[in-house]
């Protein structure tokens, strides 16, 4: 009987080691800096736990003939070539819902940072301006605003967008506008949100938070034209994916006063280059892609990530499947040349 084998990019976390051993699966751990290293790490493994970088490209997938399942830590799978995986019969697994609470909390924290000017207030106090320069405080506080009574816009109304809507309602916002081409108004009604088109949302919202997936459709959704359409007092939060925003256009908008401020947890290139214009702008605040993180998230997601591969190699269903069309590919393979699926029960 074929011994199932799994490659782990990085080190086993939480109970992953225990789970693989209990399932009788051989596994190994290792690091890699580029695609060649990832190919060497995965080799002839049946499953692989991968990270954001290096990319799990078509080249990587084609070079790993036994690979049946790739599992990403968390929700995003934009580092994996979904089309190639589907064509080759490789399941791309994720852990949907694993970080909903953390990301919604972080997005709300960033919005409060902007409305309450928290970073600036702390920096001002540490600099001694509280006691030494009351005029500075007097000029600073009018820029603070109530979230209550504001119109909040949510771009992307999946699990995280809906969780954010629930939090926003608790702050007494006047309206919640949401845009998601795949969500109907009946879903918006459950969360007190009015589903609108993107143009309406960006023109009318006082505060906007982004919770869309990174796709060809959403790439540079926020561009020059979008920022021109937004209110000059608009606040923008992004805890989704960096490429949804054209960063040069954002920097221009912040410098030119087209929008008031932005808070980002994600950028197009990560880590953000030290010479990025965004790092130099006083009205742009950036956290290092930590919105999803918590001890609970890490522990629970580690288990579910390993279970994804264990379930697939046993002929079962993973917690999350990012390329559902692969099921058809696998069915065809089983009826013709099973290839990489020859040793997996149907």
Topology:
Elements: E1 5-9, H1 16-22, E2 26-30, H2 35-42, E3 47-50, H3 58-62, E4 69-72, H4 82-88, E5 91-94, H5 100-116, H6 118-126, H7 129-132, H8 134-140, E6 151-155, H9 159-170, E7 175-179, H10 185-190, E8 194-195, H11 198-204, E9 207-210, H12 224-229, E10 235-238, H13 247-256, E11 261-264, E12 284-286, H14 295-313, E13 320-321, H15 326-335
Parallel strand pairs: 1-2, 1-3, 3-4, 4-5, 6-7, 6-9, 7-8, 9-10, 10-11, 11-12
Antiparallel strand pairs: 5-13
Helix pairs in contact: 5-9
Describe this structure in words.
This protein is an alpha/beta fold and 346 residues long. The chain has 15 helices and 13 strands. 39% of the residues lie in helices and 15% in strands. The strands form two sheets. A seven-stranded parallel sheet has the order 8-7-6-9-10-11-12, with helices on both faces. Strands 2-1-3-4-5-13 form a six-stranded mixed sheet, sandwiched between helices.
List keywords for this structure.
346 residues; alpha/beta; 13 strands; 39% helix; seven-stranded parallel sheet; six-stranded mixed sheet
- Separation of termini? 16 Å
Average pLDDT level: 94
Main beta-sheet annotation: 7 strands, parallel
Order of strands across the biggest sheet? Answer: 8-7-6-9-10-11-12
Q: Given the structure, what is the number of helices? A: 15
- Which class best fits the helix and strand makeup? alpha/beta
Please tally the β strands and state the result: 13
- How much helix is in the residues? 25-40%
Helix and strand run: EHEHEHEHEHHHHEHEHEHEHEHEEHEH
Shape: elongated
Strand coverage percent: 5-15%
């Amino acid at each position: 009987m074929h011994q199932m084998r799994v490659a782990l990019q990085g080190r086993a976390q939480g109970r992953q080691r225990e789970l693989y051993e209990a399932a009788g699966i051989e596994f190994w751990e290792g690091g890699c800096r580029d695609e060649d290293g990832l190919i060497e790490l995965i080799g002839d493994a049946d499953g692989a736990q991968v990270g954001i970088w290096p990319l799990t490209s078509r080249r990587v997938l084609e070079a790993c003939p036994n690979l049946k399942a790739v599992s990403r830590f968390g929700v995003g799978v934009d580092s994996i070539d979904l089309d190639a995986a589907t064509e080759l019969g490789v399941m791309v697994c994720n852990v949907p819902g694993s970080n909903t609470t953390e990301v919604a909390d972080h997005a709300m924290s960033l919005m409060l940072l902007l409305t309450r000017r928290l970073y600036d207030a702390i920096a001002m106090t540490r600099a001694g301006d509280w006691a030494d320069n009351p005029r500075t405080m007097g000029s600073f506080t009018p820029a603070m605003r109530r979230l209550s009574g504001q119109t909040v816009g949510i771009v992307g109304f999946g699990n995280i967008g809906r969780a954010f809507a629930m939090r926003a309602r608790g702050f007494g916002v006047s309206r919640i506008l949401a845009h998601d081409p795949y969500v109907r108004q009946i879903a918006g009604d459950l969360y007190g949100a009015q589903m609108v088109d993107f143009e309406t949302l960006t023109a009318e919202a006082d505060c906007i938070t982004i919770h869309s997936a990174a796709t060809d459709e959403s790439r540079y959704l926020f561009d020059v034209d979008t920022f021109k359409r937004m209110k000059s007092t608009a606040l923008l939060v992004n805890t989704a994916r960096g490429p949804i925003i054209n960063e040069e256009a954002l920097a221009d908008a912040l410098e030119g006063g087209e929008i008031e401020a932005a808070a980002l947890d994600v950028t197009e290139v990560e880590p953000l280059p030290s010479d990025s214009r965004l790092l130099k702008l006083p009205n742009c605040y950036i956290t290092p892609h930590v919105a999803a993180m918590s001890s609970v998230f890490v522990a629970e997601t580690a288990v579910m990530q390993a279970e994804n591969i264990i379930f697939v190699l046993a002929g079962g269903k993973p917690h999350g499947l990012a390329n559902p069309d692969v099921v058809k590919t696998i069915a065809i393979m089983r009826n013709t040349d099973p290839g990489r699926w020859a040793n997996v029960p149907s």
